[in-house]
Write a structure and sequence with these properties.
heterodimer; B: alpha+beta; globular
Chain lengths: ~290, ~160
């Protein structure tokens, strides 16, 4: 690994000042499960690494505040998967957090890091999209709230501007019944990057939010207001037509080593049907 | 010039301090600076788990952490499991069940299993499989390793029952 300077700011203001001072020469270090690999293989070569893990404003707690679940930027996947609020209101997010990497990875990897890394295969992106999450970012000019669907651009690129730091992710607590589920497909069970990842959330009003990743440069959200996916008695043909529209934006890379485009497109439909069935079961049990 | 940073941490119950380079991993400092070579270097991308240690009660890949990140932490490595020269029951079970062939992955396997049993004293087989999913064994001793972990949990439960706990 190349040599770099290490900074461990004790406040958010200090961290923002360091980001201003070092610009693109600095990289933020949260859990490190992506960054350390990139530092070692040379694909990231910052001169300064800024460790955000001791910044109190990015506290690792999960709390409900004014109808929103607030997940601090330092919160790791293990804690998200086990949290009672998350399991009660945002089960698909708990399911996604519990399949990221291995136990060792989940004990370090943060939700904020997962979305800032902006991998198209990020497990937590689809649930955040179906739950309509908001990314809270602090910058030199104050705090911005970015809807998660306006956050992802392409692999490794987000709409954060230079100098900004994600401090929390917020999810609106559903005000009515909601059934949700997360599904993924990997080459092998246990510990692998997703070949396809997909979440569904079905509301009592009949609206279905469906999001998927690992089939294009960024994760995709599709909102279906037709009521077909939410209708347990709808025919498979009717659901297939909705899926065709929902998956129109999938464009899997022919060069990926994990799975070919045909397989991924076929699996999107399989995972979509499974997730809808599970979400409907859960909605009925609400 | 390489920046060095003083860190203080507890390793296997003993306070230790070191001057570490900012870009050195916890794995490198454990092995090269503190002489604890039980923790193994292997894939260096967080896939194989050979470098697993327990940091503040949680298993982590020490190859994916800078040593400075462990400043102030409590670290348990495989060297810290035996007491008074006697293997821990979990370590002994790995031997008894034949979980060890070449042995290279075993420190990581044992540390993951140790962390699993600390959090889940009576795991199901599925929980053991999930708990050890981040540890690869190229000799494919998975069956024997799972048996070692499950038998350790069963023996602890039986001992608890015997003692009326």
């Amino acid at each position: 690994m190349h040599a770099f300077a290490y900074e461990r700011p004790a406040t958010l203001a200090e961290a923002l000042a360091l980001m201003q001072a070092h610009g693109s020469a600095a990289r933020l270090l949260a859990g490190g499960t992506d960054l350390i690999i990139r530092l070692r293989d040379g694909s990231a070569r910052p001169s300064v690494v800024i460790d955000v893990k001791r910044i109190p404003e990015l506290d690792p707690g999960i709390r409900v505040d004014a109808g929103r679940l607030v997940i601090g930027a330092r919160t790791v996947m293990t804690d998200i998967a086990a949290d009672a609020h998350v399991r009660r209101h945002f089960l698909a997010l708990a399911e996604a957090a519990s399949v990221v990497g291995s136990v060792q990875i989940r004990n370090r990897a943060t939700l904020a890091g997962n979305i800032c890394n902006a991998s198209p295969a990020a497990d937590t992106a689809p649930p955040l999209l179906v739950y309509d999450a908001t990314v809270v970012a602090a910058g030199p000019d104050g705090t911005r709230r970015i809807p998660i669907d306006a956050f992802f651009v392409r692999s490794g690129v987000t709409t954060l501007v230079p100098g900004e730091i994600v401090t929390a992710i917020e999810l609106p607590v559903p005000d009515g019944p909601l059934g949700a589920a997360h599904q993924r497909r990997t080459r092998r069970r246990g510990h692998d990057l997703a070949s396809v990842t997909l979440s569904v959330a079905i509301g009592g009003s009949g609206t279905t939010r469906l999001a998927y990743g690992s089939v294009g440069p960024r994760p995709v959200l599709h909102v279906d207001g037709s009521g077909v996916l939410a209708d347990a008695s709808a025919t498979a043909e009717a659901k297939a037509r909705v899926f065709e529209a929902a998956f129109a934006d999938a464009s899997p890379s022919p060069r990926s080593m994990r799975a070919g485009p045909d397989y991924r497109l076929a699996m999107l439909r399989v995972l979509g049907a499974r997730a809808v069935a599970t979400a409907l079961d859960r909605l009925a049990g609400e | 010039m390489t920046q060095t940073i003083p860190i203080a941490l507890t390793v296997n119950g003993r306070p230790r301090s070191a001057e570490v380079a900012a870009h050195h991993t916890l794995l490198e400092v454990l092995r090269d600076d503190l002489g604890l070579t039980g923790t193994k270097e292997c894939c260096l991308v967080g896939e194989c788990g050979a470098c697993t240690v327990i940091l503040d009660g949680r298993s982590v890949d020490s190859c994916l952490m800078l040593a400075v990140e462990a400043d102030g932490a409590d670290v348990l490595t495989v060297e810290g499991l035996a007491t008074d020269g006697r293997l821990s029951p979990l370590q002994q079970a790995f031997l008894d069940k034949g979980g060890v062939q070449c042995g290279f992955c075993i420190p990581g396997q044992v540390m993951s299993a140790h962390a699993l049993l600390a959090h889940t004293p009576h795991p199901t087989r599925a929980e053991v499989e999930e708990g050890l999913a981040g540890n690869l064994c190229r000799c494919a001793c998975y069956e024997q390793i799972f048996e070692a972990v499950l038998s350790t949990a069963e023996a602890a439960a039986a001992a608890d029952e015997e003692a009326g706990r």
